Amino acid sequence: MINFNVPPCAEKAMDYIKECVKNQKICGDGAYTKRCNEWIEKRTGTAKCLLTTSCTHATELAALLADIRPGDEVIMPSYTFVSTADAFVLRGAVPVFVDIRPDTMNIDEKLIEAAITEKTKAIVPVHYAGVACEMDTIMEIAKRHGLKVIEDAAQGIMSTYKGKALGTFGDFGCYSFHETKNYSMGEGGALLIREEKDVEDAEIIREKGTNRTKFIRGQIDKYTWINYGSSYLPSDMNAAYLYAQLEIADEINDARLACWNHYYERLTPLADAGKIELPTVPEGCVHNAHMFYIKVADGTERERFMNQYLKAENGIYAVSHYVPLHTAPAGLKFGRFHGEDRYTTRESERLVRLPMYYGLTMEQVDYICDKVINYFA
């Protein structure tokens, strides 16, 4: 069996984790958490990065910082993971779903403005597969209407749009370091903050509503309860595991891109023949090879191709992806879809994600491509 995903692990990870234990510093905001924050800040150019327990929590933290309140509306794609909506539903807001572009599976920037009402508070673009949304247009709309922008860049670390890191365009950006991501700490994420003025509030909310971060830095002699908050700090052992990968981030990125490019080259003849569709990376976007997917004719063919042919007959574990949120029970309860669902449902039913992870070999990619080619031949 060729697994769909194998969590990344760098050689130094266990040494760093042992160091945390030896130094008796395994809770949040230890040495490795700080190193990860600094690495991300330097790599992306964001004003501040705060490691969190998950991308879900990073998005919740962003919703708090954006002062999302009951009755507010937040525009986002329906084709995304549930956390994108959950973070705002927990604040009493209404997710307003709009259709996606069929080429990138990202929110259709041309449909956002029509969904804006007097209740709209924020736009949440999701950079699917590490390929950027059309951020120039989205930021211009947000500026004109006075809206916050919170980037769901869960899949987007190491990706750029016109030379700028994903997660750094909006007021806040959210990364994921789940075990399925390019860089992992098991469960984990990060909040990127664009404006220095938001940093202190973020630190307080992230530290259970206290100013403990200032106390740790020696800026005050004791800390106290300042505001509402929660515990969004990951263990420093998780950060140590992640930091070992960040030290070789380019090596991991290059290896994934090599596999992605090989998939694309091998399967292009099938796409040219109209048998499948391949991913689109628009001009100005540099992606991170988070995933490689193909699109087949419809849901019926996907089921036969993915589960029967690839998995059962050939030992290749491929997966589908999101059930559109507006069709889910919670989506019907908490949100609404604006406009026509031309592509969200149709395209989601056609998509098949092929195995992609650090450590996948070219021989395995060739085996997978051979089987895909044979099926459609």
Short description:
It is built from 13 helices and 13 strands. With 377 residues, it is α/β, with parallel strands linked by helices.
- End-to-end Cα distance, whole Å, is 23 Å
The sequence of SSEs as H and E is HHEHEHEEHEEEEEHHHHEEHHEHEH
Structural class: alpha/beta
Provide the domain count: 2
CATH class of the largest domain: Alpha Beta
Write structural notes for this entry.
By secondary structure, the chain is of the alpha/beta class. It is 38% helix and 13% strand. Helix 1 (13-22) packs antiparallel against helix 8 (236-246), helix 3 packs parallel to helix 4 (82-89) and helix 9 packs parallel to helix 13 (362-376). It is globular, with a radius of gyration of 21 Å. The mean pLDDT is 97.
Main attributes of the structure:
38% helix, Aspartate Aminotransferase, domain 2, alpha/beta, Aspartate Aminotransferase, domain 1, 377 residues, three-stranded antiparallel beta sheet, 13 helices, 2 domains
List the helices and strands and how they pair.
Elements: H1 13-22, H2 31-44, E1 48-52, H3 55-65, E2 73-77, H4 82-89, E3 94-98, E4 120-123, H5 135-145, E5 148-152, E6 160-161, E7 164-165, E8 172-176, E9 189-193, H6 199-206, H7 212-216, H8 236-246, H9 249-272, E10 285-286, E11 292-295, H10 299-314, H11 329-334, E12 336-337, H12 344-348, E13 351-354, H13 362-376
Parallel strand pairs: 2-3, 2-4, 3-12, 4-5, 5-8
Antiparallel strand pairs: 1-9, 6-7, 6-10, 8-9, 11-13
